[in-house]
Amino acid sequence: MAMDVEEKEQLGFPYWKSVRRTFGPESPFFASGNVERELIAKQVALDLTEDEKNKLQNLVAKECGVFFCPIVGCGSRLTSLEDFEDHYNAQHTASCSICSRVYPTSRLLSIHVSEAHDSFFQAKVARGYAMYECLVEGCSLKFKSYKSRQQHLVDKHKFTTSFEFFKKAHSSKKQRQKLQRKQGTHKREEASCMEVENESIDGLVSAVSKLSTSDSSPSSVSFGRRHTRGLTFVPRAVQRDKRPDAT
Amino acid sequence: MADEGLAAHRREPIKSSVSNVAAHRRRKNAATVGKERRESLVRAKRLCRVGISGDTDVFLENDMMIDEEQSILEAQTSSAVEGLKSTVAYQGKGAMQKRVNALRELRRLLSRSEFPPVEASLKAGAIPILVQCLSFGSPDEQLLEAAWCLTNIAAGKPEETEALLPALPLLIAHLGERSSLSVSEQCAWALGNVAGEGEKLRNVLLSQGALLPLARMMLPNKGSTVRTAAWALSNLIKGPDPKAATELIRVDGLLDAIVRHLKKADDELTTEVAWVVVYLSALSNVATGMLVKTDVLQLLVERLATSNSLQLLIPVLRSLGNLVAGDPNTTHAVLVPGREITDHVIEVLVKCLNSENRVLKKEAAWVLSNIAAGSVEHKQLIYSSEAVPLLLRLLSTAPFDLRKEVAYVLGNLCVAPTEGDGKPNLICEHLVSLVGRGCLPGFIDLVRSADTEAARVGLQFMELVLRGMPHGEGPKLVEREDGIDAMERFQFHENEDLRNMANGLVDTYFGEDYGLDD
């Protein structure tokens, strides 16, 4: 009898096993928690009262006057020192010193400079080296032509066919004249680089010196190797980047 | 490092610059899709409604738009898009300002209600023109407005979000370290909505390299940008393919940033970071392994102990749960009985069980059940803690889904760790005590429920009782609680598994010989 009982139990029954249970993130087990997440997000949205909105607005108006970016030719509307730093970083540092195009990452800027302005790059391309890098960071594939790189972006990375990394920009008349001048009187690469840099540095110096948070303006203002402590206010970004070693 | 902290503190007054305040307000006012579209609540998209320059005409709380209003809005939208097109073509003086104004107008139309006129915008051809407005070198204001428009377009229906495909590479590019914070944040927001749409778009974004720049945006210590990036990332890695999660944890500095944020960040940022940890720990074994080796468990427990914010507690608890469930090391190596951290874990889980919220209670019980599935020492620890009286109460009084989880905890306490394939041994001391304290009716109730899994759990526990109670008391106890009755329901039940289980028990313990020895 006992034996039979034992056997029967061995055969059929799925005994309680003490095991860990896991659930995938989209499992129905977690559904109610997920809904809570978005419900709460929505509730938070309605919480800001009129009073609070007013307080915030006053705070903003009191602390920041409005001023305009001092960099020559820019004039963007700015509302605080932080805003200026932010804006400066975005618009005035990752720009190509030759054609003034601006890029959102240093990597893209450097790719642009090689492809558009470097004759060594073009020479290697002409000799059949794969020089055109894929634009997606981490991909690390290289291609022999702009077109084949473009095709790769479309095929592998699902870019749309209308995406163009290097668009022929329409330059303003002033810019075109500047460019023509440079091309006419100097050797393209080295000299034009230098000139542009000098120009922009001069511009910066004159513009930034007008921007001061103290009562007295500094008597001397300089960038580059000489120390910049003459200025009472220079955005950190300016101090950091405008060193000639960075060529 | 200390200096940095001091400096940051001193700068506090200036820190509330326009972009921070505005982003903060935007954050607070972002609304998800309306109540009627219930399934959208789980789609994890966020509309961007309040903006930078303090427009007071933007925010409407009651958004029941009547048909007429809707068609007016649509007409306005079409003309706004047309207006925008003409400013892009125009090259003369003041072109930039005209363009920004046109963008702003479109953005306002797209921010007004919970149902923005997305279809009308798309029909009018908004996407190609917005893509043009995103080109490199465009002024910040233009980028911001364009990204904002795209954000709200992406918060709509699936096919509408898909329309954003041409814009994706540019949105991703503007996440770069050279972009202004508000631009990169707005782009992250748009991408977060796209990623929240579904697996297909997630994969496109991943193949276009969205992961790395978003991950980098999580590295700074604070700022609304960090929070938006974390939210967008949580949408991006949620799978079901674990590849993205594994890739994310391997990003240089990211694990560090997670630890830092869990330790020091405010509630809002911690919440989003916790959701990232939820997905990392649910999907990627590599990530789980790496997380368990850091202080993360300790930090999660501390947050559970000190926070009262429901939106924070949910992902933190779930992260803890995933780490316990996903990696045996968590209970074997970290949450070892005898250590302070282990006692704290039990404490905070009890705290969650005592809370008012269903989600916290259920998931806390789940975590406990997994700890109870550990070693004998773990079972003893839980058995002698304040958890048990609470669990016994919940087994009789709680809503159904919670009762099921509680059942798992109690059952696991009575069964020794699984070794090999044979019948697992019982921990009689625990079984006798728990049955003595009246847990049997609760299990038999589960057998009576319509839920297959619950019935199974109930039957399995009944088997333990029948087998394991000393002096052959088991069958009598079961009979007394109407257990035979409950089992006989399955005699001719359509579910073969349950049928066999129930009949097997009845045959074995309540066969012809039953009752004869009395």
Automatic annotation (TrEMBL), chain A:
Residues 238-247 have a biased composition (Basic and acidic residues). PANTHER family: ZINC FINGER PROTEIN 511. This is C2H2-type domain-containing protein. InterPro entries: ZNF511, Znf_C2H2_type. It comes from the Eukaryota. Residues 69-92, 96-117 form the C2H2-type domain. Residues 211-222 have a biased composition (Low complexity). It comes from Carya illinoinensis. Residues 174-194, 211-247 are annotated as: Disordered. Residues 174-185 have a biased composition (Basic residues).
Automatic annotation (TrEMBL), chain B:
Keywords: Protein transport, Repeat, Transport. One of its GO terms (cellular component) is cytoplasm. SMART domains: ARM. Residues 1-14 have a biased composition (Basic and acidic residues). One of its GO terms (molecular function) is nuclear import signal receptor activity. Residues 1-36 are annotated as: Disordered. One of its GO terms (biological process) is protein import into nucleus. SUPFAM superfamilies: ARM repeat. Belongs to the importin alpha family. PANTHER family: IMPORTIN ALPHA. This is Importin subunit alpha. It comes from Carya illinoinensis.
